[in-house]
Structures
1.
Amino acid sequence: MTPGRVPPLGGATNSLWLAVLAAAAGRCQCRGACGKSHAKDGGRCQREHGGYQQHHGGGTVRLIVAPADPAHLLQPAHRAATLPKRALAAWCPTCHNGARTLARRTQRTTAPVAEPDALFDL
């Protein structure tokens, strides 16, 4: 295993994490779902696993594996954990948080307003 590609803890998930990271070439796969265009990066986030992050607190970038579809980022962890490799993507924490925030905002604005339950039919 190359330095900087240390998988997260968790037995069976290590192989899945490594497979998704390999498919992503060790780079965040966000193409704007976080709200940034990544235009100066060719349309895709430039953060690489194990690389240095100059902004947002600095430090080493640790990519995570999460659903590729931003709408599925709001799923409970136990449902997201059952997704196949093709439905997952590598995300840097900044893009992952941005995409989840936008997905929540979209969900709030498109969800139908719940009617209060009536005690009695009139």
Note: The CA atoms of residues 74 and 104 lie 7 Å apart.
2.
Amino acid sequence: MSPVEAVLFDRDGTLVHDVPYNGDPERVRPVDGAREALDLLRAHGIRTGVVTNQSGVARGLLTEADVRAVDQRIDDLLGPFDVWAVCPHGPDDGCPCRKPRPGMILWALGRIRTRPADAVVIGDIGADVAAARRAGARGILVPNQVTRPEEITAAEHVAPDLLTAVRAVLDGPPKGRVLADERPIENAYATGAPAAPADAAVWRAPAAGDTPGRPR
């Protein structure tokens, strides 16, 4: 049985393909293996959540209603998630919830009553794993085309895709384990995932330059 009780995911570039400042639910496309990875976690009784920077709100490119609509579409396709946390602030706002700061992670884990030491955060950029480390959780980096080489070098745990990352969570990787050479799970689709608890939460900080492709 995995020692991990909860896995929190970054949203854009991790669970779904990254469409910069997306406010259109019709443009949501899960990444390959996302549904299988999440069902596998839920079949093992592991809670799941999303922690996402959405600076498009602070920049005036999105409304909070836009973000909620996209989040709902993701929940329809990949949920139910036990907790959602969204930071609408910009990179210069000094917000304690915005990754790489740990505020969203700590809040989300508090809502689902999980200690950081019993949680994993999976994301595609250095800010995701840095926030996990600052919160006291383990981070796994799943790189894509926007992940910087130095972020991959600095990450303690790296996986080539979500399914491999989830297998590592279930196996409980020791510190220092590098996952980039592991093979993805095959035929890992699991059914019978439990429904979200009645108090599944959504948190949004009070509304208040990233490079293109990294607007979070």
Note: The two ends are 34 Å apart (CA to CA).
3.
Amino acid sequence: MPVRHLRISGVRNLQPLVIDPHPHVNFIYGDNGSGKTSILEAIAVMASGKSFRTSQLKHVLSHDHDRMEMRVGLSDPDLGECDMESLRLKSGDHLLKLNGSVLTSQAEAAHWLPVQIIEPNTFKLLSGSPEERRAFIDWGVFHVEHTFMDQWKTFRKHLKQRNAVLKQKEAEWLDVWNDGFIESAEAIDAQRRAYLSRFKPEFERILKQLDPEIGVSLAYYPGWEKDSKLADVMQRQQERDMVLGYTQSGPHRAELRIKCDKQPAAEILSRGQQKTVVAALKIAQGALFQQESKRSTIYLVDDLASELDEKHRFALCRLLEELKCQVFITSIDKEKLTDVWKPVASKVFHVEHGNLNEETPNE
């Protein structure tokens, strides 16, 4: 699903730009603060409605603009071609369109624009909260299981209602919501387990290619006692749930545990090794998505040179090249991009003071 056309306006310090990216590799280089990362950020916001640099989208908006406008033209051999538009106002209002029709859900945009991000903070996938690792799992499940989003919405509805009953101490109403809660929770758990059973061997294969000396294991915790039925767990915890005013167990508490020598990987591995593991997780997820959907992920790789040493940069680039997916990859130093990865099919862009210019070959 390569981006064939990109238009950005009102994003941070970027000047309005229009480019036709290469369907495979796009090198973007420039000094710190030049705006190169903002290009990747804009694509990420289109895909997910979120920025990987800030939790508040108002900070993505340029100080000189009252609106942020982005438009991408996409091309897919199975889904066809489309134009996606995003308008975000300083007031917080948002409009998202696909081929001129208003989208009511960001999930529809994510379906058309599957994006993986590798940037300086992605190592927090190991050291951050369980929520980040749940989101990682659910990205994969969402893109291959068409019923997952509906199941998740149903579960969230039951969870919300059950928590409301618990807060009001209305025990007589719990049975009304328990059955639906358990049914949707078990459906989500089954889809996550099935996905991870396919993901683990792919991750192990990718990590071995990036660094065969790193040994990491993945373990899934469903959000309740491992060898117990959710219905039994909830029955035992009901009194405590009533005291706390919320539901203690369920898929909203699930966890992907990433370990090295039976210890949390974030506590054992060096920062560089953590980044290598996270890169393997991201590439493996894109590779599995490609195998199962016959579609390609778009990779946004920010500040590659600071993330990995030359050996690991070379291995990462080789894996991405083998996927034949579209990549947007940034660095301060042009040579650190092109020296370790010299694909025939590529474009080079230079960003300076918010202005983007495409360079001619051999420039």
Note: The mean pLDDT is 90.
